[in-house]
Amino acid sequence: MKTFPIGVQPYTVREALRADYTGTLRRLAEIGYKGIELGLPPEGITVAEQKTLLKSLGLHVVSAHAGFDTLSFDAEAIMDYLDEVEGGRHIAISLKFADKEDVLRKAAECNRIGARMKERGFKFLYHNHDWEFMTFDGKYAMDWFLEATDPAFVGMELDTYWAAKADVSPADYLRTRLQGRCPLLHIKDMEAGEQRFFAEVGEGVLDFKDIAAAAAEAGVEWMIVEQDESRRDPFDSLTISYRNLEAMGLLKR
């Protein structure tokens, strides 16, 4: 079975990060995470200081997120940041879509942004939630978007929980739609029951052995653990997810 480097999305511990930036990053590294999706440091900490801190903790910036439901972000500044921090080459966004025409219009803009990112050696990624699996003219908005964007310019960061929340199998979607197009995979689980609340990886109903097999087939490079909300202390949730991935034999040493 293929193993993966495991990163973390610190949105899970966003309150702790605001309260104690350095201490929170240290705790994530102590759990065992080697990668992190991160942006510019808070006021009072320079990128050079952030870079030194991350290096001391053994944390590599895998990617950065450019914002939510907007294409009006400074792509050059984000790429400059990742260059300075010696981070990964992936930049992700999420959008909302009103109708098919809106999907196609935003897809065209993503192609333009992604082409510029490619010129600088970066890859533009789309991170889904569940609403991208609403249908317009008999087809998922997500499918319209993928068909309207050039794989050379726009890839995916599939989110397993949100796909499953929309009753779409993340493993099947990786196999049928995202071959060679999903370098990063957001992994989170789902509780059984009507509420379908977030769960730690390996504690819910998703089949991560099958998801991992599909991820290997699709060319996924990193798995990124995120849990939007937790019934436990968020650090405990991230620890449980990491340990379960290790027990599943999916953790790359």
UniProtKB/TrEMBL annotation:
A Pfam family (short name) is AP_endonuc_2
Alphabetized GO MF terms: isomerase activity
Question: What InterPro entries does this protein map onto?
Answer: IolE/XylAMocC-like (IPR050312), Xyl_isomerase-like_sf (IPR036237), Xyl_isomerase-like_TIM-brl (IPR013022)
Key words, A-Z: Isomerase
Pinpoint the Xylose isomerase-like TIM barrel domain residues.
25-229
Entry keyword Protease? no
Q: What is this protein called?
A: Sugar phosphate isomerase/epimerase
Protein species of origin: Paenibacillus nanensis
Highest classification ranks of the organism:
Bacteria, Bacillati, Bacillota, Bacilli, Bacillales
